[in-house]
Sequence to fold (224 residues):
Amino acid sequence: MSENKNNDKNRDMIKDMASVEVSCRAGRIYCLTIVGEIEGHITAPNNCKATKYEHIIPELVRIEEDKEVDGLLIMLNTVGGDVEAGLAMAELIASMKKPTVSIVLGGGHSIGVPLAVSAKRSLIVPSATMTVHPIRTNGVVITAPQTFEQMTKLQERLINFVAIHSNIKEDKFRDMMLNCENISNDIGTVLYGEEAVKCGLIDCVGGIAQAVDAIGEMVNNKKI
Fold:
């Protein structure tokens, strides 16, 4: 009966939150999926896959306080999206006491970069890509000095966050953002799996087995 209840619970979680809880040798692991566009203050179009930050933020609080959850595994395949919403989620993940591991699958672009490095350990599959580029804005923009100053400050917050939570230096990350030679129709840098590790952005290359092993090791170490 208990197993059936767990199966029903996981089916509901997959449907509602694209997440699942699994048991491993180390304990109970919550697997959170962040996919598509990070939706913030503006609703994404109906034909877009989106991760809503108003769903993720309270769920992260619940995971942190749930005694039955021993660790958090974050699976990323995102094109980016709302910068402030993404940073809010990343800051929450970075401040969690429970073991956290992220794995980039497919893509971890734009605001997906700070989300990937917010975990205590980060992985990327060999075929995945990460795009580093300057902050953008949509809609009507007031072309005043204050507008550009605020965007610059927000961009520096993002750069600082990434540098603190990874092994890449601020200057290196900023240079990647402003690179004019890597993308034909834009500025920025596209990194593939091993390149993201080599520059210090991501900790190591690996798949789901390595990610589960990593979080299992962290959970065991915390119990000692």
In short: DSSP finds eight helices and nine strands in the chain.
